[in-house]
Amino acid sequence: MIRENRTKRLLAQGKTVIGGWVVSEDPTTTEIMADVGFDFVVVDTEHAPQTATGLQAHMMALKDTQATGVVRVVWNDFVRVKQALDVGAEGIVFPWVNTVEQAQAAVASTRYPPRGVRGWGPRRALRFATDQMDYFRHAEENILVLCQIETQEALDNAPAIAAVDGVDALMIGPADFSINLGVPLDWECGKFVAGVRRVRQAADAAGKAFGVITSGADYAKRWLAEGARVIIAGADGAFLKMMAQATLGEIRQAIVP
After folding, report:
1. Sign for the pseudo-dihedral over CA of 143, 223, 162, 190
2. What's the pLDDT at 177?
């Protein structure tokens, strides 16, 4: 039987979900993120050197956890999406979604015909079950579709993108969004903040969730207060560095000269 997408259910109930971001090729990192208690874990393939075999290992690391396995694909391409879903991804983050047509293509890549263009061959996503029709009947209602808003064009089209049937949430890709707005990496700039709020309003109007990739608790709490219901709390490398720096600093301070 297909595994319930807990994150998708929570969002449908109007609740907030918190995720971790994985760049490392080591699936142990994904397992740790799940064990910590994140609702979902995103494995990045856009800016990280993940292989198809490695991606499957990341999804397998979530098998005995409640965390939803999500993949950010390198591009809005149905072949890449098919590969991620076939190895067990339960959600897809689509980068650089600028138009309604691109949002529709994103959704279609997660659906089987006649509603989409996904080819049949789910392999591990089936959990190697013999009842393949169970997966066929329920897969599309169980897959999370997150569209990233990262450009001025996407911002202008955000209301229409949010209204596309099958899109579960709009997410800000803060780095590219700020760069394309002409205020690179300036999270406090009024233009950036106003843009993020417009995306949230578009999501709200369509009855969809709004999400932000953040880099720590303070920034996350800020956007929670603004209505975000999908929060990426941070990435594996950043978590490791912060903990290492804090621990090292405490030990060094304890050394008697």
Report:
1. negative
2. 98
pTM over 0.85: yes
**The two structure tokens encoding residue 227:** 């209505």
Q: Where are the domains of the chain?
A: 6-254
124-139 mean pLDDT:
85
CB 94 within 8 Å of CB 86: no
Write the single-letter amino acid at 23: V
- Give tens-digit pLDDT for 208-248: 999 999 988 999 999 999 999 999 999 999 999 999 999 99
Q: Cα(79)–Cα(119) distance, rounded to whole angstroms?
A: 9
Residues 56/79, Cβ–Cβ less than 8 Å: no
Locate tokens 């700020």: which residue?
Answer: 178
| Both structure tokens of 181 | 């707005």
User: What is the CATH topology of the domain spanning 6-254?
Assistant: TIM Barrel (3.20.20)
Which residues are tagged catalytic?
47
Query: Which amino acid, 154?
Result: A
